[in-house]
Amino acid sequence: MILPIVAYGDPVLRKVGKEIDKDYPQLEKLIADMRETMYNANGLGLAAPQIGKDIRLFIIDASPFAEDEDLSEEEKNFFKDFNRVFINAKIVKEEGDEWAFNEGCLSIPTINEDVFRQEKVTIEYQDENFEKHTETLSGLPARVFQHEYDHIEGVLFTDKLSSLKKRLIKKKLDNISKGKVNAGYRMRFPNAKR
């Protein structure tokens, strides 16, 4: 089932997610619905807060990056299979130089800005079967992970912008929260006039 994506301004996007266990109600259905919602919106990732749930769950399917001609064969092969569920994720270590990349977010449609993030992250998480994993990601996989991870920490990519950039996009953000935006997919707006 395609769920509405929560828009900028909704308080759930600012909550730190709660850990869950394998008894979380209808988890398999929730993950399937999140996938369907993400694909419907042409996203690479979707976090539970973006569908109104303040839990530590997000999904990533970075396989579209495998089509990027600027990537090496090794990178293309990595992205081809980078389709995962992350439960109760933690960043153990961040390292490397910060680098800029143009990011967007399904909860903040029509806004894309360069965001600086560290190049490499070591992470711990559980998959949909609650098997534990420890892994080091670098480059684009690390960036996509960090973006979705921020969601379960109550952080949005716009928080990482300079104060000047934030002032320049303030009106757009206000309009998004009021529903004055055409995202091309179902959304739930916190401040829309009913």
From TrEMBL:
* EC identifiers of the protein: 3.5.1.88
Cite the cofactor comment. Binds 1 Fe(2+) ion.
Q: Which CDD domains match?
A: Pep_deformylase (cd00487)
User: Which Pfam families does the UniProt entry name for this protein?
Assistant: Pep_deformylase
Q: Name one GO biological process term.
A: translation
Catalytic positions are 148
Checking SUPFAM superfamilies in the record gives: Peptide deformylase
The UniProt record lists the keyword Transmembrane: no
**GO MF annotations for this entry?**
metal ion binding; peptide deformylase activity
Give the binding site residues for Fe cation: 105, 147, 151
The cofactor required is: Fe(2+)
If you read the UniProt record, what top EC class would you report for this enzyme, in one word?
hydrolase
InterPro entries per the UniProt record, alphabetical:
Peptide_deformylase, Peptide_deformylase_sf
What this chain does, per the entry, is described as: Removes the formyl group from the N-terminal Met of newly synthesized proteins. Requires at least a dipeptide for an efficient rate of reaction. N-terminal L-methionine is a prerequisite for activity but the enzyme has broad specificity at other positions.
* Cited NCBIfam families: pept_deformyl (TIGR00079), PRK00150.1-3 (NF001159)
What protein name applies here? Peptide deformylase
Give the organism the record lists: Tenacibaculum singaporense
